[in-house]
Design brief:
The protein has about 260 residues and is of the alpha+beta class. About 40% of the residues lie in helices and about 15% in strands. It has two domains: about 160 residues, tt1808, chain A, CATH 3.90.1570; about 60 residues.
Length: about 260
């Protein structure tokens, strides 16, 4: 009997069993970074942004993988993915990676992630510790990721975003100068914008109403002026007729030898 030599296809799990975040503070930062990066490139169909997505760089190897907190791939289309399989993406790997530390992250784990990113071609790697407000960054030089000497006011070569470290907070600015907003801030801005739109609509409606009232008032005023002019014209016609009649009578009197102007 011939043994069955058919190989089972390799499965690439879409979940590594690890939580996305260990606490709400870390989670909020992950969502803020990933969400604002998505907004930054929303109009570019060839920039893929994702958060907590397993990245498999090697076909046939389902063990070599990592799930960055946020990743950016320039040159790949947007769309749904259960995982990022680099061989299905034209061989293009993420160029920019973000990690947000939590108390549960172990030094060995972060070292392995760094080595992974260095090995598989990440160009920019940013690591933020929100509890201690510490930001580190690395930039590719050849086959290595070298530390960025100062992250305060650093501008990402690939993304154009700027990092500003304040005493107790990190502010990330888009290339147009707007900061990365939290989801709550974006929600509040949306509500404020809607309120402003509603107020503008009411103002426009009121202005239209005033303009219509003014138009009707002008029409009524014109009608009154026309009526007054008609009365004046009629009175003038009567006066002219009376004058003509008087002149005709005077002419007849003169023909009879009577001076109409004598007492």
């Amino acid at each position: 009997m011939t043994p069955n030599t058919t190989k089972r296809p390799i499965e690439y799990p879409e979940d590594d069993g690890e939580p996305m975040a260990d606490n709400t503070f870390q989670y909020d930062w992950i969502v803020r970074i990933e969400g604002n990066l998505d907004i930054l490139f929303h109009s570019d169909p060839n920039v893929f942004v994702a958060g907590n997505l397993l990245w498999y760089p090697i076909e046939g190897d389902n063990k070599t993988r990592v799930a960055p907190d946020a990743l950016v791939v320039l040159g790949r289309p947007k769309g749904r993915r259960g995982s990022y399989r680099q061989w299905d993406e034209g061989g293009i790997g993420p160029q920019v990676i973000f990690e947000v530390l939590s108390p549960g992250n172990r030094p060995g784990e972060m070292t392995r992630k760094f080595q992974f990113y260095e090995r598989f071609g990440v160009e920019e790697y940013y690591l933020y510790d929100p509890d201690n407000n510490l930001l580190d960054g690395w930039l590719r030089d050849g086959d290595r990721l070298l530390p960025i000497s100062s992250m305060n006011n650093w501008i990402s070569p690939r993304l154009g975003i700027r990092f500003e470290l304040q005493p107790d907070d990190l502010i990330i600015y888009r290339p147009n100068g707007e900061p990365f907003y939290t989801m709550l801030e974006l929600f509040q801005q949306r509500d404020e914008a809607r309120s402003q739109i509603d107020e503008a609509r009411v103002a426009v409606a009121e202005e239209k109403q005033r303009a219509e009232e003014d138009r009707l008032a002008r029409i009524q005023a014109q009608k009154r002026a026309d009526a007054a002019q008609q009365k004046a014209d009629a009175a003038q016609q009567k006066a002219d007729a009376a004058q003509q009649k008087a002149e005709s009578l005077a002419a007849k009197l003169r023909a009879l030898g009577v001076d109409p102007d004598s007492p």
